[in-house]
Each structure stands twice: as C-alpha cells, then as structure tokens.
Fold this protein.
Amino acid sequence: MKRKTFLLTIMLLGMQAVFAQMPVQELPFDPDVVKGTLPNGLTYFIQHNENPKERAFFYIAQKVGSLQEEENQRGLAHFLEHMCFNGSEHFPGNSAVSFCQRIGVQFGNHLNAYTACDRTVYNIDNVPTTDPANLDSCLYILYDWAHALTLDPKEIDKERGVIHEEWRVRNSGVNRILERQLPVLMPGSKYSERLPIGLMSVVDNFKPEVLRAYYDKWYRPDLQGIVVVGDIDVKQMEEKIKTIFGQLPAPKQDAAKFEYYAVPDNYTPIFVFDKDKEVTTPTLEMFLKYDPVPRHYRNTFVGITNSFINMVLTTMLNYRLDDIMQDANVPVTACRAYTGPFMFMARTKQALQMEIRPKDGKSEEAMAMVLRELRRASMHGFAETEYKRALDDLSGVLDQMVESRKTVKSNTLVDECIEYFLENQVKTKFETEVQIYRQLGQNVPVKVINDFATTLIGQLDTNLVVFGFYPEKEGVKVPTAAEANKVLASVKAEQLKPYEVKVIDTKLIEKEPVAGTIKKELPEDGLGYKGFVLSNGITVKYKKTDFDEGKILMNAISHGGQFKLKKEELTNATVFNDVMANNGVGKFNGNDLEKALTGRIVSISPTLTNSTENFSGSSSKKDFKTLFQLNYLYFTEINYDTVNYNKVIKNKEVTLANRDANPMTAFSDSLKLCLYNYAPYVQPMTLSRLKQVNYDGILKIYKERFGNPADFTYVFTGAINEDSLKSYAKQYLASLPTTNKLEKKGKPDMRLMNGKKICRFSKKMETPQCYVVGFWNGTCEVTPQNQVVAEALGQVLDIHYTETIREKHSFAYSTGASSSVMYMFGEPKFLVQVVAPVKPEKCDSTIMLINEGMQLIAKNGVEAEKLNKVKEQMLKEYETNQRENSYWQSAETDFILDGKNTVAGVKEAIKALSSDQIKAFVNNNVLKQNNSLKVIIEPEK
Ligand SMILES: [Zn+2]
C-alpha cells in the first residue's frame, strides 16, 4: 500500500470546506525580503534587520551535496567545502580566513560551512557594516566560493590529512554501525552510499581533476542562492549582487540535470540491530516513513497545515508516552516522538520517528509498548481533551513567537530564506503564517488529526523501519529481526481499548499567600541593575532591557553549595540537579505539573554548584507571574515525587552501565580528576556509587541548602514590566517564611593542581585517536585588564595552534585554546586551556607544538597583525554582548557573588591591549607560576 497522497486527500475531504476562502496557491512571498533571480539563474535574498545592529550575515547555499558525487568522488562534496578556505581568485592562500579575522569574524565560528547529502551551505556571520568595503569583500568571498576556487594540488594534498582527522574524530560507535547498515536501512536509495564524510580511500588518493570535475559540474548559478541579511541598505546591496554575481557564466545548454533522489517505500518492515564496542546506551530508532508535501505545495496553506498536523500529532503522542512513563515498570527509560527527515538525512522522505531507550534486556517489550501506542492512536484516535491541551500548548508557543519576532535576530531570518530556497518551505509574512496556524487551531476538528494518524500508522508493517544500536558487551542482548517480527505480529493481534486520559485539576496555588512589602529601594548599581529589599529580607535586582521581547531571565543565588555538604552527602549531591529539575511541587508530581502548565512558557529548577545554590529559570512576559508562583511552591511545598526520582535513577543506571565503553568519557573523567587534584567533588558517578544514592538524602540537602529564601538574591533581566515585577515579588517572594540565618561565602576545600604534571593513559579504541589537553593555571588578580589580556592570549593561541597543528602539519581536524581570569572557588585565578585531538603517532609532536606556542609568545610577544585581529574580534564580541540578556545576567551574578564589576573598563582595556601586556602575562603568570598540566589519552597497543 502506498501512502503517496494522503495529505492532499485530507485537505480535499476535510479542509476545503473550512477554508474555502483560501485557495491552494503559493502564499505571497514575505514582502520584507527582496528576492530576485539573475539572468544566469542565481537567486538572491536580501533583508534589512537591525538585530544585531551594524552587523550583516552573508550566506551562499548550494542545492547540491554528497548525493551528486560519482562513485570515484565519494567524500569530495565535503572536501570541496574545505578547499573554499584554501585559496581562490580574489583571496589567494588563506587570505579569506585572514581577511575575516581582521574584521573580527572568527574562523570556525562565524566563518564556516557544512556539507549534507543534499545541500552545502557557507556562511560569514556578524560582519561589521560600519566599513562598506567589508560588504564588498564578503560578496567577493561568496563569488569566489561560487565559481573561482583555485583548487591548488599542493593545498589539496595538505587538506587530505585534515579531513582524515575529521573522519577520525567523527568515527564513533554509532557512526560505524550507521555506515555499515545504511544499505539495509535504505535499500535502493542513493542516500545509503553517500554519507558526506565519504570514503577515506577516495579522500587519500583522488586526483585533483576529479575534484575539479565535481566543482565545475555542480557549482553553478542555477543551483545557488545568496542570502544577505543585516543592518544594510537593501537597494545598494541588490545593485552590488547584480554586478558581482551577474559575472558568473550561465550554465551551459548541456549542463547536467539536477535531480532529487527518492527513498523507496518498504512493504515489509525493516529491522536492523547491530552492536559496537564503543556504543554506550542501547537505543532504538523507530521510523514510519511517508512522503513529504510536494515542493510546489509547501509555501501554501497546505504546507502550513501539514506542519500543524505533524506538530499536534507528535505533541499528543508525547503526552501519552509521558503518562505511561509514570509507571516504574515500563520497559523504557526514555521515549520521544517527533517528525523529520527519514534517517535524519533524507529530505525526500519524512518520518514519524520514535526514539526509544530500552531498559536492560527489555528491547522487545519496549518495541511492543511503542507499537501498541501507535496502533491505539491509529485505531481509536485522540480525545477532545488531549487535542485541546495540544492546541493550548501551540497557542502559548505562538504567543511567545509573536513577542520574540519583535526582536528577531538576523540569523533566524537567514535560515528562513535558506529553507525556502533549498526546500521551498513556507516563507510568507510572519503574521500571515501565525494567523493561519491560529485559524487551523480554531477550525480543524480532532477527527482530521485522527484520520491522519490512521492513514499514517494504519497497517503498521508498511514503511516501518526500526534501527537499534547496542553496546558490544557480554550480557547485553541484541534482538534479532525474527524476534522483532514476532513482537509486531503479537501487537497487531491485541485487542486495544481507547486511551484513558487522566484529567487533573490544574490550579497551581490553592490559597494565595498574604503579600509582604518592599522595605527598601536600592540605588542602581554599576551594571545598571536596580533593586529592592523585601520585608522578609529577600533582595531583588533587575534590569529592564529591550533586547529580546520573548523572554525574561531569572537567577536566584545564594552562597553555599556542595562545599557546605558533608563528604558522605556528595554522592547524593552528584545527582541532585538531575533529580530536582523535574521534581514536582504543590499537589503535582513532575508530569502532572507539566500538564498544569500547558500553554505556558515557563521553566524553573533548583541547582547546586560547588559554591552556590541557585534557582534558575525563565518565562515569557505573559507567564512571568507563573514563574513567581512556581518559585513560591518550590520553597513552601516540594512534592515527594518518587515517580520522577525513580525515572531519573533508572535512566542513570542505563547510561552508566556502559559509560566506560566510550573512550571520551574515560578521558574527561581523568581530566577533571587531574585538574582538580582528585577532589571528592569531581569523582565521576559510577554504577556502584549510584547504589548509595537515595531520595530522602537528596531532599535533605534540598531542605538545608534551600531552607532560607532570605539567603537568596534574585536577579531578573529582560522585557520586564516594573510594576508587575514589584507586585509579584510582594505577593510570592515577600510572603515566604524566612530566618535571619544568612550564609557567607565559604572557604572551599578544592583547588587546581599545581606544579608540572603529565597524566598519561591509554584505552582500547576501535578507531585509534590521541587527545592532548594542556592547562596552565595560577593566581591572578581579577581586573578588567587581566581579564582582557587573558582572553586575548587564548585567542592568539587558538589562531596559532590552528595555523601550526592543523594547517601546517595536518595533525588534527580542529584544535582549540581559551584563557580566562576569574574567581574559582573564591580565589582569583587564571586558567589557560588547549585541546587537540590528533593522529595517534603525532601525540608527542603535538605536546611539543603546544609548549612551543606558549614559549614563542613569551619570547616575541604577538605580531601586530595577529594582535589586531584578536582586538577586532574582542571589540565586536563586547559590542554584541551589550545587547544580550544572558551576558548581563551572568555579569550581575558574578557581581553579587564576588563583588567585582566585570564589565566596566573592559572596552578601554581591549583598546589599550598591547603585545607587551600579553608577553608579560605569559612570562609573569603562566610560565613563572609554572603550574602546567598535560592530560593525554592514547590507544592501547
Ligand atoms: Zn569538514
């Protein structure tokens, strides 16, 4: 049975009548975007947007990817992407990278690209628009990418090593299984032989002309789209694009025909189960394939209807799964439904996808459980109450989207244009789209969704694909296809009743507390935060901003944390955050609380750090009051939520059972232990430690650490209405019972390692790889100048190591360095870090290169050109941060904890930054204090 046209059928049956006024035609293209096609076939999109101010974003999207490769080109779509940064007509050598760095655009972060099966997208983000010459240069970079790459054979040879290292980094257990099984999972489809990373036999050996052939054949204007969004003059930009890209030659008459590659339907189920020594968690991915809305219908009312139906269907399925998961005896630890491209990659085939984490040895029961619910949904549909809840949730999301849209960021707008260009996804006026969603919510009866579920799920064995991956380990049972078929047959024979919906009373607070008062107003502090003290002693600080209309941030902080706990409490403390994140409050357990909060955009959770307790949360403007109510309940009425607790612990058990199988986990465990001197606070969680964890112990920590609300300072940042803030604070904060017992900053029993040390260890690996991490640390006063010099040092090292370890020697695919000055465990510290995953045989050479990089700066300082690049990047980042709520929120938090204003004086310090300062910092701090640690993991011989 094929399910080619079910969507159109639904539309014709049900909706045409409801939406008679809306004929199925292309929705008017978003009038805020200037769109055009040049005579040579190139499409462009330009939009003015001032968030961020004085910045522009330049993208080129190619409709081609690894699917367009011939057999002898496997991996070359991606290889070509790398070559875009290695020389072109206007930017020889690596001058494109260098130019971008000079204007403060970081390589790898703001200058980047990605290759998929069916697309290749390049980006230059956050370009300063203050100098118009920058805009021209960026257009020429896009131009060169489109048509004028050098593809120098010498550069190609150097890049082979880098890509080989990228393959190594990405070659995880799951990826190995995927590569092996794709031909079985997607039989008869070109996708199964075109993972973008390709074949290393091709990457290592191809002749330069084979790469050139792919480039010439597929990089051509009819398959290319340019997107420029930002604080720019749109008319001028359009003229420039016409002039520059008009020079691209039109595709030849006999140019290769571009095609989409289908994924065939399967009429009997496909079950694939496989194992690998480095897979840690058994996982089942269950797909129900179906055809996506045809391209020409996507930017129409049908496209939006399709998204609407998918959204509410998966939402309702997830409600049921969440409910079922309340039972401690379910065979899964996690289970989620969503829709997306089949096998995460094929955009020519959609899938309703269920991601399932079976408990130990319970794979068959887990499959049965999910198949049963799918079948139940298709037989009996969903109830009005479930549908209403989904619509309420959707409506809450839409409300917040409308608010957020007022301060929409340029990169979001870029993405919309790219999806329209590549996939013809909806791109109409935002308000129109939202209005259609709302109308659908009001007019579409639940029967339409139920019909959709019946058509999609109907006969379970058509288009069903189940892909399971397991740890290869004694005692771990991997199911067989025959067993899975048996499960399916037995579920199909079951008599299923309609789902019983458990309805709950959703009132959050039974009896409103008696409000307190504001005792004292506080003057604005150096970071622009005003504040007040409430009658019960709680302090509130707030900063009203207009950076993001969709969200208000909250963080309540108090000194204390794990350092105040007894040693024997640390095991419980390790899982504290996970358990408390979804613990219920009031009369609700965690799951019921979620139900009660349907349609509201709000989140809050208590967290414990080494030296603090926090309530961190956020809400939309509309649900600001709910945030206060939840906080009130957390203090007054914590729910004894064993359901949530058992769920969290079971989940941990499953992930911990094989955690050591992943070499990276062993590595990061050892790294933490070495760096923090084997402090008890960083002991990794293990299965045997988990056995000592108990819920009462966790709640005891909670009651002690979160016992006195007056010990907390509340920080709010965002689109705040001051009157509402004060009235909610009086109602829900000032009413909390408090004591006079206030905690001071503790003297923590933890410090960074000192002296010179190398921690070296080996581990059995399926794909041999060496990781080298270097640290330097020491004492250093926290001043704006030291902060800036330290950060600059990190960036200089980052560029240096990329140039040497990656570009010059091809030892690694990527390296990274960073450095900072801050309070750590109450003491002023600096910390410099370097990370490099490299070829196993180059481990020792890499250690030498890392040390050499630091020595060079100690001796020669930093070249003027490099220093200017770093200063530009830092100034730009500083400016971007000025309009980020999260930046202010964390600066104010630091200010409250350590009494240091980490913003004032920073800009001046960046401007004054000199090579001598960095040199002196390295000599006087980094090398002189000489606390240097290298952690190395190597493959076991
Ligand atoms: Zn790559």
Notes: Residues 78, 82, 166 surround zinc ion (CB under 6 Å). The two ends are 53 Å apart (CA to CA). The longest strand covers residues 346-358. The CA atoms of residues 772 and 936 lie 5 Å apart.
